[in-house]
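Chapter summary example.
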Amino acid sequence: MKNQHFLKLLDLTSQQIEDLLSLAADLKAKKKAGIPHKLCQGKNIVLLFEKDSTRTRCAFEVAAMDLGMGCTYLGPSGSQMGKKESIADTARVLGRMYDGIEYRGYGQEIVEEIAKYAGVPVWNGLTNEFHPTQILADFLTIQEHFGGLKGRKLVYCGDARYNMGNSLMVGCAKMGMHYVACAPEKYFPDRQLIATCQEIAKETGAKLEFITDPNKAVKNADVIYTDVWLSMGEPGEVWYERIRELSDYRVTMDMLKKAGPQCRFMHCLPAFHDVGTVIGQQIYDSFGIECMEVTDEVFECDQSIVFDEAENRMHTIKAVMAATL
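The structure predicted for these 325 residues follows.
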């Protein structure tokens, strides 16, 4: 994968995904054992963020330091891209100074254009349509808890139309898993993407389902996964509509029990599971509910592996950078 971009999982083979997960597991073991692994000594990368993030920024920065690289962070106001300078020009400037570029922001077409002009590997830290580094972390976590991916049933509850629902569906199709989108029909993924994933599933043995009844969807699930109901960049006025239409898809202990004792809860974070944040308090003040997509009881229970998942962002991102550089 040297000099390849990492823009979406559709671009990778199942074997490449498997290899990245193996490399991530190896690098994680080395870090835990205190074994240096400065595989990219002397290189430099830049993080180009149009949307803020805790996990993505920290994962890339720590991974870069572990690999022996210098790292520059450009936040939402840190560059002129799209304002005084075009995406193509920005990419060509950064590509002359850095060995790799991470982009986190809006449309997938932006990271694709950066990759077209950069001349160095470009990594997608999140776009509206895809979030591939998160899926690698999710899959490493599932492997650690279940011993493998093939045949494992992952149920995604909530709004499955955007980056997380899309990327989990693609990843499950690639790795021969059983993916269930559990949502009202209007929140199912794009039909064309579903068709693409169904073709992939024919080759890998994956199973894809789209179910509106949560009780039916979660039966025998190995993983119940959810994300916030309001995607980055959407107006706050949408909250009422989402609460009205998605409340039946909130992950509760009753839902977890219906899945079975083997089931684990996953969330890419941040999660609105209590009123301990400014937005959480605003939601309570406006709508009288103490949680959104998941209850605090589920979030804090023994079946929740969200912090294993969060840590693995760093290990899998490290693998992506090491493999492509």
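To summarize the output: The chain has 13 helices and nine strands.
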